Amino acid sequence: MMARDPVADTPHSSDTTMPLVVYILLLAGFVVGITPLIGVVIAYVYRGKGPAWRDAHYRYQIRTFWIGLLYSLVAVALSLLGIGLLAMIVLAAWLIVRCVKGMMALQERRPPARVTTWAW
Which domain of life is it from (predicted)? Predict the structure, then answer.
């Protein structure tokens, strides 16, 4: 007999509010630079406290933050070669696509596709 997850059985187990807030905070980083950091902290705090599909979103968001930070550093380094602006535009598109795909999956209460990918 399988053990039941007491957190998954709560009325709020299908709540999508906090993952949605994290996606919005990641996107708000275009306007207010500190919000992605707040979003990743929230994702770390809420990770592991719900159903698997929602935890996959937190993992996806955490990976999006760290991979995005790495890509940002590469874009800054490429600015020395004169192609940094192009790299930053590609990075912005990458972040928007990942967040939109994540929000669409969240709306359907399913995990994002390809959580471990570095692309979109």
Answer: Bacteria
